[in-house]
Design goal:
Elements (H helix, E strand, L loop, with lengths): L10 H17 L8 H8 L3 H29 L1 H20 L4 H29 L2 H32 L4 H4 L1 H15 L14 H23 L8 H23 L13 H18 L2 H12 L3 H25 L5 H22 L6 H28 L6 H38 L8 H14 L4 H5 L2 H4 L4 H37 L10
Helix pairs in contact: 1-5, 1-6, 1-8, 3-4, 3-5, 3-9, 3-16, 4-5, 4-8, 5-6, 5-16, 6-13, 6-15, 9-10, 9-16, 11-14, 11-15, 11-16, 11-20, 13-15, 14-15, 14-20, 16-20
């Protein structure tokens, strides 16, 4: 425990530096979504190319989270955080000057190297910079930034792309990155440069990298090729490799003299519960936002800016509830707080599903958005506080990395399984709805059905609103049929995600015991 007299007198400015870094790192996982159409046109990219603009970032981001956490423990969190900031800023600049889609893929990976460092080290820096009640408030503020950044990407991205060009989503990081570097140098405590003694577990690093890469890449392969079976070697091979490498990693951590990860952290049921909640949150909510944005833009008809503005109904709660939830972590059992927050999100998703009709707009959705926003705004503070208060100070760096890793892997899981549910529901909906389009020749319906299935649910609306289709007398009926088909798959997604969040809430209720009378286990 940090003594009051040793606390960094400039700790709140240090919090601003860390929060800015985390905001940039996380918003770049979602802000690029609304820029993809412009990138496709400008760089002559295919659909698969566009998927790799996102996947190149998320794969590298996920793989390096644990590595950065360990490097921070060994060589100093302040130094590693600043190195990450510099790499991220340089990567952002390189993204903006990319003249081919291949260059953009490479530089997105460079950007992710730095973003991973900032995310991995953030909670540990704040956890050791603050003490007592202030720690809960500070972690609450930082957690609110996570919820805000994940949900506000479409808003910021939509404004930048509509006002300037797709490159602006990267160039905006340059001045912010430079300011954040200066703030970090000046205000993050020198205590963050202290490091562990002992050697580097290079074998453990290699095994952990291989495990996470194989797992995430295998899931990405399935996401990009929805028609592939799980047994296909290009998918199953990576997933089997992930299991084998994970077993070897655990064996290495038990036998190494200086292990990369202290497995004793998982003896705490509260820590284990917190990282599981992080997984369910990433899989059930943060992976959902990409599909929500697609639904609102492609099918409800909002622009990128209008979509982001309406989704602020969700993200806006993070700014208000994050600090409040942080203060409550000092008074309430964290498991109860997590369970209530997760239930709000789960109920909100089921409510949104019930409100989704073929004519629904934001005027119908907003009650569900508020429920999701309340849960999203209040869930991160008790989750991170539970994890940090369950381990020793020397373990906070790795605990921070584990929370980030489980959440990011959860996002990867969620995106894949949501995509599969959407595709299945969409194709079933097309089979049911298209024959009901009156007056359309059967041959044309068959051709349109094949084109819609091949293009996928994201592009269905664009096909049926093309000039050729809109010139037919049954265009409106066809457009409504495709909207209903998408709604069918979209509802399946929400049911899946709602159940994941409810399961996460039950897990928290059973396992997370911190927050009551100083309990740590």
């Amino acid at each position: 425990m940090i003594k009051e007299q040793t606390l960094n007198p400039k700790r709140w400015l240090a919090l601003i530096a860390v929060a800015l870094g985390v905001f940039m790192a996380l918003i770049d996982t979602t802000v690029v979504n609304v820029a993809l159409p412009s990138i496709q046109t400008n760089l002559n990219a295919s659909y698969a190319d566009l998927q790799w603009v996102i996947s190149a970032y998320t794969i590298v981001f996920s793989v390096l989270l644990l590595i950065w956490a360990k490097l921070g423990d060994l060589y100093g969190r302040k130094l590693m955080f600043i190195i990450g900031l510099v790499i991220f800023t340089i990567g952002s600049g390189l993204d903006a000057v990319s003249t081919s889609i291949g260059m953009l893929h490479i530089f997105r990976a460079v950007q992710a190297i730095g973003g991973s460092a900032m995310m991995s080290l953030s909670f540990a820096i704040i956890g050791t910079t603050f003490n007592g009640k202030e720690r809960g408030i500070a972690l609450g503020i930082l957690s609110s930034i996570i919820g805000l950044s994940t949900a506000s990407g479409p808003l910021l991205g939509g404004w930048l792309v509509d006002t300037f060009a797709w490159q602006s989503i990267f160039t905006i990081n340059l001045p912010i990155g430079l300011i954040t570097v200066v703030l970090a140098l000046l205000f993050i405590s020198k205590e963050q440069v202290h490091h562990e003694t002992g050697g580097v577990d290079y074998i453990g690093m290699i095994l952990s990298t291989g495990t996470i890469f194989s797992l995430v890449f295998g899931l990405v392969q399935k996401e990009m090729h929805a028609s592939w079976n799980w047994s296909k070697p290009e998918v199953s091979g990576y997933l089997i490799a992930a299991v084998i490498l994970f077993v070897l990693f655990i064996w290495r951590q038990k036998t190494a003299k200086n292990p990369m990860m202290d497995l004793s952290m998982f003896k705490s049921t509260s820590f284990t519960g917190a990282v599981l909640v992080a997984f369910f949150l990433g899989a059930g909510l943060y992976g959902f936002f990409a599909y929500l944005s697609t639904f609102m833009q492609n099918y409800v008809g909002y622009s990128a800016w209008d979509t982001g503005l309406r989704q602020a109904t969700i993200s806006g709660f993070s700014l208000v509830l994050g600090p409040i939830a942080g203060m409550l972590t000092n008074r309430l059992r964290h498991g109860y707080m997590l369970a209530v927050s997760a239930m709000f999100i789960g109920v909100g998703l089921f409510t949104l599903s019930a409100l989704t009709t073929d004519t629904a707009t934001f005027a119908d959705f907003w009650p569900a958005f508020i429920l999701i926003g309340i849960g999203n705004g209040s869930i991160n503070p008790p989750m991170t506080t539970a994890a940090m208060s369950s381990v020793e100070p020397r373990q906070m760096g790795m605990a921070s990395g584990m929370i980030s890793t489980f959440m990011q892997v959860g996002v990867s899981f969620g995106v894949v399984f949501q995509g599969l549910r959407l595709a299945d529901g969409y194709q079933t909906g097309l089979t049911q709805q298209l024959p009901n389009v009156l007056g359309a020749p059967k041959a044309m319906i068959s051709a349109v059905h094949d084109a819609l299935v091949t293009a996928g649910p994201f592009s269905g609306h664009a096909i049926v609103t093309s000039k050729r289709i809109m010139a037919t007398p049954f265009a409106k009926d066809l457009e409504m049929a495709v909207r209903r088909a998408f709604d069918s798959g979209f509802k399946d997604i929400m049911h899946l995600d709602g159940m994941l969040l409810i399961i996460g809430g039950i897990v928290a209720l059973l396992l997370v015991k911190t927050g009551v009378q100083g309990q740590k286990k």
